[in-house]
Structure formats: structure tokens, C-alpha cells
Amino acid sequence: MHTLLHIDASVRKADNSNPDHNSISKRIAIHFVEKWKSLRNTDKYIYRDIGLNPPAFIDQEWIGAVFTPDDRKSPEQCEKLALSNQLFSELAQADIILISSPMYNYGMPAPLKAWFDQVMRINKTFSFDLARGDYPIEPLLSGKTLVLVTSCGEFGFGPGGEREHMNHLGPHIRTLSRYLGVKSFYEISSEYQEFGDERHQKSVTDALNRAGLLATKLVGADSHPANSPYLK
Hints:
Blueprint: E1 3-8, H1 24-39, E2 44-49, H2 60-66, H3 75-80, H4 82-93, E3 96-102, H5 110-119, E4 126-128, E5 137-139, E6 144-151, H6 170-177, E7 182-190, H7 198-222
Parallel strand pairs: 1-2, 1-3, 3-6, 6-7
Antiparallel strand pairs: 4-5
Helix pairs in contact: 1-7
């Protein structure tokens, strides 16, 4: 049995009375999950909608609690880290991490940044040792797969695109993913939302198709040897 951790970051709901307000990134992620569950219905599934229920931002007391040895933490510090500990536990269990996020102001939504800040902790997700010289940080988790689903109002944010230099969503998450223990990273993007034309419809359709195919591929890769064509 494997564990799929699903994080939704859009502040929009997946299903609204006005369909024009539905979250596109959540819709695509749901399609991935439905396909995954249809193929691996015994897997554990952990879900958090941090867009609708955002984690608290870290603060000075939080940082102080993190750097206090466990045997010296006060009850207040333990309470301060309760959410962080729960989020880390969910991450540690996960074999597949599915994050869906819209692009807000060319980067990640504040709730998703808050999730990363809560979950990425010294001696939890990474170690720090100055004996390593100029590269003292090393991840402590490993072997995970991250699937990132993004949606944006404009277009051309991918490699070689005219707005590639403005994309601070996917590249940021890819950088952070190393410290989540991610070995394999996949990104599925939907574009042109603000244009609302046929390019947008095609982009959403293509993203939905890719989500279903990727879920099938990952399930197949997990069931076959390392040299399997499912991995290619």
C-alpha cells in the first residue's frame, strides 16, 4: 500500500454555483486522484485544502520553538508546533505528493508558502552541518514523487516561453521539492484562463488528459521493474 498526499492551494472551491468560479487547478488534480484511486483503490489518501483552510504563518515564537531541544520545549512551544508536526507526519508518510496551485502574481499563493514554511524544518526534512562547507543543508527524506498541477491566466511560462522569466511558481516549488525528499518531479499546467478562448479550453482539456495519463503511468511504474517502459 502506498500513500498519496494531496494539497490544494487555490482559494476557490472546486464546485461553485457559478461554474465560471470553479478552481481549474483543483479540477485537474481531482481527475488525477480519481484515476489513481481507480487503479490503486487500497492506497491511503491524505487530503488538505489549504486554500480554504490555510495554515498559520510562522512567527518568532514558532522559530524559537523549532530551535529549542525537544526535552526543553515548554507546553506552549509544543502547542505552537502541533500543526507543523501533523503536516510533517503527513509528508513523511507520502510516496506521491500531489500539489495543485494557481499562479497568483506570478508565484505561489500565500497559503501554499505557509504550508512549505510549516513543514520544512531542521532535523525533520533537512539537516544542517557547517562541516559540509558552503553546502551545509541536506535533505533527510527521499524517494518521493511530486506532481504539481498549476493554472495561470496568461501563457508562455514554460521552458523557452516568452514569460518563462516571470514564472516564480513551478521553479520555486521544484527547488523546495528537494527538501521534501522528492526524487521525481512532474508538472501539468493549464494556461490562458484570462483569455477564455479556445486556447484556454484546449489547454484545460490537454491538462486533464495529461493528469489521467500520468496517474496511469505512475501506477504502472510502481508495479514494474526500474527498466520498465512505464518509466520512459
